[in-house]
Design a protein that fits this description.
single chain; alpha/beta; 2 domains; 11 helices
Length: 263
């Protein structure tokens, strides 16, 4: 086997957990021809990202319904998510009404929009998104009411859903915990409910998801892939997901790493 980069090795560990309930450090070290210490560091890093659960001597599939808080998630895959956010801004035009849900990846979209300061109106349930956008006087912000959850820095619940029924939007930009060839899913049922409501109120839906979300299925279903209009991601897609998106005419925008391309 050719020596893999850390990213490639970690991606293969996650794919293995897609078919095996648990994996052992010793077995992974032998499979990838690296030391057990290297695998242990890989598993610790993936665990910190909320992508698996560490066990004695190995790792197991992460919980379908639990994940780290939004601030913890935002500290992983930073360069990839920042590229995704910047790429997504190109879809928005002056005068648009945009819905943005709560999550770590959409936070980077909000940061990029705050820098660009387009003349748009944004409806969101995320305090973090509202703060990032609030730097730009040209962006009108409508924040949903609801039950505040500190770990997500956002509001959810019946009042949030009822409030969203008052509005229509040109775009929805949302994140998610997982994506398969069939559907988009999330660990949080309350968050998934807000995403579904926003989908119903927006003309076009954009999913922002990094490559580690691919071929992952979590607790709460958000929508079928056919309900998306655009996917913005950071790496080429697995063949089954690429085929499914093509079949449903979902456009894919790849957030390229300019520094890598320049090299």
């Amino acid at each position: 086997m050719d020596r893999l980069s850390k990213r490639e090795r970690q991606d293969r560990i996650l794919k293995r957990l897609g078919s095996d309930v648990a994996v052992r450090i010793s077995v992974l070290a032998e499979t990838f021809a690296v030391t057990t210490e290297t695998i242990r560091r890989d598993l610790d890093e993936l665990s910190e990202r909320g992508l698996l659960a560490r066990t004695y001597g190995g790792a197991a599939v992460r919980s379908l319904s639990k994940e780290p808080g939004v601030h913890t998630r935002a500290q992983t895959m930073v360069s990839e998510r920042r590229r995704i956010g910047r790429t997504a801004t190109a879809l928005i035009e002056s005068g648009d009404v945009v819905m943005i849900d709560a999550g770590s990846t959409v936070g980077y979209l909000a940061e990029a929009l705050g820098d660009l300061a387009p003349e748009i109106t944004v409806i969101t349930n995320s305090l973090g998104v509202a703060r990032a956008l609030g730097r730009a006087e040209t962006i009108g912000i409508i924040h949903c009411p609801g039950d505040f959850r500190m770990t997500e820095d956002s509001v959810f619940g019946a009042e949030t859903l009822a409030f969203l029924d008052r509005y229509h939007a040109d775009w929805l930009f949302m994140g998610a915990g997982g994506m398969s060839a069939l559907e988009v899913s999330d660990a949080d049922a309350s968050g998934a409910a807000v995403k579904r409501k926003m989908l119903a109120r927006a003309e076009r839906a954009v999913l922002l998801a990094d490559h580690q979300k691919m071929e992952q299925t979590l607790f709460a279903s958000v929508c079928e892939v056919a309900e998306l209009d655009v996917l913005v991601t950071d790496a080429p897609l697995p063949p089954d997901i690429a085929s499914a998106l093509q079949a449903h005419s979902v456009k894919v925008h790849l957030a390229e790493d300019r520094e890598s391309n320049a090299a």
